[in-house]
Specification:
single chain, mainly alpha, elongated
Length: 87
């Protein structure tokens, strides 16, 4: 059998840009997509709550440090919106 030259173990073929795409924009992939797990366990829920608490503490520490240095940084909570009221 004839083998393709340059494709050994661990090597991939490099993609080439076609000379004419007829105005199509090249697709850009932006990181990994977050997929929600099918089962949410109690342990995962506690981890999420712990992460929220740690993030909040870090934000408060950063805001107080900035205020001590003379800045005007404060924690702003997003407005609570009623999802069914606007529809």
């Amino acid at each position: 059998m004839v083998q393709k030259g340059g494709l050994f173990k661990g090597q991939q073929k490099k993609k080439t840009i076609p000379p004419n795409r007829h105005g199509k924009v090249p697709q850009t992939r932006k990181g990994k997509r977050f997929v929600k797990p099918s089962k949410v366990t109690h342990e995962m829920e506690t981890d999420r709550e712990l992460t929220k608490f740690i993030n909040y503490c870090n934000e408060v520490k950063a805001a107080t440090a900035a205020n001590k240095e003379g800045g005007q940084l404060s924690i702003v909570k997003p407005p609570e919106s009623d999802s069914g009221a606007k529809k």
